[in-house]
Amino acid sequence: MLSILIPTYNDDCYELVQALALQAKALNLADWEIIVADDGSTDGQVIARNKNLQDIPGCRFVRNNDNMGRAAIRNFLVEQARGEYLIFIDADMKICEPNYLKRYVMAQALGNVIYGGYIVQGGTKTNLRFLYEKQGEKNRSAQLRNNQPYKDFHTSNFMVSRKVMKDLPFDERFRHYGYEDVFWGKQLEVYGESIVHIDNPVAFCTFEQNSDFIIKTEEGLRTLRLFRNELKGYSPLLKVADKLERNKLKPLFACIFRVMGKRLKRLLLSKHTNLLAFQIYKLGYYLSLK
């Protein structure tokens, strides 16, 4: 049996589920299910829309009144699922391949953890999230991702066996945005479980406003700071920060950020936003954390 699992928080995923249900039906699988778990959404319109998922054959919608956290909601979905193979998809993704499910079914023989990747669609050059995602697109082919499989893993689109998820659940200390997938990738490497990367992307085409993306980025950096020891060697930003600290340059850089940080942030919020300023802001914000 195949279980398709979608954690959501304030994301309308009706069209995503419809597309997946159509592909599953066309494959004539012996048994399949789609489970959507709402992790304490606060948007009433989204909640109402997602409640209609119950009307799609093969789909089950579960709503949690309280927010469990990014790791715990995925573990919760595993407990709800009946399949021996599980496909996780983020709720803000879009199905862009007509044979998306078929490719995953055919890839089951390759291993217990298969990551399909994602592509970027739409967006504008004044949107910081779009620029950030678009810049990394050239490095997202399966061939390149397989060069460092544990460091190029994301939870947005992957298939995993139930056994692996039961043996290595997501670490529920990661309640807030960021790095729960990076840490899980590290756990897989430590335990000797391989990740196979294939080209079976979903599309990322929903880009929050620059102000919201900066808030989310700052939250992720606080997560990185909290788990910096566990994530050492798995974050390029940590590598740069450690180098500055070894060369006793951290206080100087943090001081410069205290002076220039607000100006950088205004630039990032403007229509002239750019990625170099964003990278500098991220490093400065991280170094200023206590």
Can you put this structure into words, describing what you see?
This protein has 290 residues and is of the alpha/beta class. The protein has two domains: 203 residues, Spore Coat Polysaccharide Biosynthesis Protein SpsA, Chain A, CATH 3.90.550.10; 79 residues, no CATH class. Helix content is 46%, strand content 15%. The chain contains twelve helices and ten strands. The strands form two sheets. It has a seven-stranded mixed beta sheet with strand order 3-2-1-4-8-6-9, with helices on both faces. Strand 1, helix 1 and strand 2 form a beta-alpha-beta unit. Helix 11 crosses helix 12. It is globular and about 60 Å long. The N and C termini lie far apart (47 Å). The model has no long low-confidence stretch (mean pLDDT 95).
Which terms would index this structure?
290 residues; alpha/beta; Spore Coat Polysaccharide Biosynthesis Protein SpsA, Chain A; 2 domains; 7-stranded mixed β-sheet; 3-stranded mixed β-sheet; 12 helices; 10 strands; globular
Name the CATH homologous superfamily of the largest domain.
Answer: Spore Coat Polysaccharide Biosynthesis Protein SpsA, Chain A
Largest sheet: 7 strands, mixed
CATH architecture grouping of the largest domain: Alpha-Beta Complex
CATH topology of the largest domain: Spore Coat Polysaccharide Biosynthesis Protein SpsA, Chain A
What's the domain count? 2
The separation of the N and C termini measures 47 Å
Count up the helices. 12
Strand order, main sheet: write it out.
3-2-1-4-8-6-9
Q: In the CATH hierarchy, what is the class of the largest domain?
A: Alpha Beta
Q: Provide the low-confidence segments as ranges.
A: none
Strand proportion, as a percent range, falls in 15-25%
H/E series, N to C?
EHEHEHEEHEEHHEHHEEHHHH
Cα Rg: 20 Å
Give the class from helix and strand content and strand pairing: alpha/beta
Shape, please?
globular
Number of strands: 10
Average pLDDT works out at: 95
* Helix residue percentage: 40-55%
